Amino acid sequence: MMLGLLLARAGVDVLVLEKHADFLRDFRGDTIHPSTLEVMHELGMVDELLTLPHQEVGELRGKVGQEIVPLADFTHLPTHCKFIALMPQWDFLDFLARKAARYPSFHLWMRAEAVGLIEESGRVVGVEVQTPEGRREVRADLVVGADGRHSLVRQRAGLEVKELGAPMDVLWFRLSRRPDDPANLMGIFESGRIFVMINRDSYWQCGYVIAKGTADELRGRGIEAFRARVAEIVPFARDRVSELRGWEDVSLLTVRVDRLATWYRPGLLCIGDAAHAMSPVGGVGINLALQDAVAAANLLASPLREARVTVEDLARVQRRRELPTRVTQWFQVQVQNRVIAPVLGGGASSRLPLLLRLVRRFAILRRIPARLIGIGVRPEHVRSVAAPAALTGR
Ligand SMILES: Cc1cc2nc3c(=O)[nH]c(=O)nc-3n(C[C@H](O)[C@H](O)[C@H](O)COP(=O)(O)OP(=O)(O)OC[C@H]3O[C@@H](n4cnc5c(N)ncnc54)[C@H](O)[C@@H]3O)c2cc1C
Q1: Nearest by Cα to 276 from 213, 332, 210, 335
Q2: Which of 41, 58, 87, 342 gives a 20 to 30 Å CA spacing to 287?
């Protein structure tokens, strides 16, 4: 959606395909980081975006054993917004879609699922799309696979995937929220369990991290045992676990971390999770995907406008974004292997790790994780366009 908006703003004819009828789903995280808010600022949209319901988190804290530990302090970042905005992703996507729709060359088809690639002489020249009206062909100078970690585009393009592995999956569900509940985003790390609660005002979006492949075993023990487990981890929500009526109220989110060896082929480019599926660790995947979109728009708007996109142009996008991807995934894999896997295995020491003790003691150290999470490696900036495409309506 962000790439569509930026390309349309630069005068490129663009069609975004979304297989669902809306963006209303729970599975993608709600974090809009300072780097993304900076992009919105550069587009002149941040003030309006922040009129939508959201919470601002200036400091991240986690509960490790019985201790509340400050982990990251965003209030010193060199960005306009010194906080993470927690906003349901569907609100953010709807907002971008509304803004993009002002450009006459922007088109969005909902309930339009890419089901295959059209190739001619070794070049991708379009996609086959399943719509409620039937199957259609869409031809394009460039097809961008931004279809997430189960990307059909990358699979059909036959791009080689390097798996980095993830030791966990996540059970995702809601519990209602009361005004006297704790307000902050909470991560609970205890021997044998990791639990995340995102404050969505009237309810908590809960993520219960489990060892990979153990969901069936948990389900086998029955929903009653699961409710009891949740009540034990978050005692203040004990009276609400009955809201989980059955396993249909609990979704399994499979976590994967991988990246493509090559992100492109003639006529095709993958970005975001389709190019590099991100772990939920650090909650940075959305922001990395967005930075890919900004870089791709910066590098490809002119060649696209002039209908002369080459493989070298596509390679430039990968060269620009590969370092941030590798560094971020390296950190995620370290946290997965050194923190999450031992905690899930029940083998973690009850003593706070040295790093966390240092971060707790010296406030200035909290700026380092804040920078890594909030801005990341190689932040991208929106280029001003020579002649912004005409706007229509709002
Ligand atoms: C459990 C879990 C929690 C996470 N929490 C966070 C978090 O808090 N913060 C964070 O930054 N990151 C988080 N992440 C990572 C984050 O979700 C991804 O990195 C991010 O969503 C990638 O964005 P994307 O646009 O590349 O793909 P997606 O967000 O997956 O978007 C892909 C879109 O393409 C559509 N689509 C898929 N296939 C097709 C098709 N064939 N045709 C048409 N449309 C299609 C999908 O419906 C979807 O709308 C989490 C990941 C997991 C697994």
Answers
A1: 332
A2: 342
For a pocket test of ligand 1, which of 286, 288, 373, 375 has the largest count of ligand atoms closer than 8 A to its C-beta?
286
In the structure encoding, which two tokens stand for residue 118, read together?
Answer: 């059209």
User: What pLDDT, in 10s, does the model give residues 197-224?
Assistant: 887 778 898 999 999 999 999 999 999 9
Q: For residue 336, how far is its CA from the centre of ligand 1 (angstroms)?
A: 19
Cα dist from 254 to 163, 173, 221, 318, whole Å: 14, 14, 20, 26
Dig out the tokens for 122 from the structure.
């070794």
Pairing of strands 161-163, 258-260: antiparallel
- pLDDT, one tens digit per residue, over 130-152 is 999 999 999 999 999 999 999 99
The answer to whether the beta carbons of residues 61 and 71 sit under 8 Å apart is: yes
Nearest CA, atom 36, ligand 1:
147
Q: Find, among 325, 252, 249, 320, the residue nearest to 285 by Cα.
A: 325
**Distances from the Cα of 63 to the Cαs of 194, 197, 347, in angstroms?**
10, 11, 17
Q: Is the pTM here over 0.85, yes or no?
A: yes
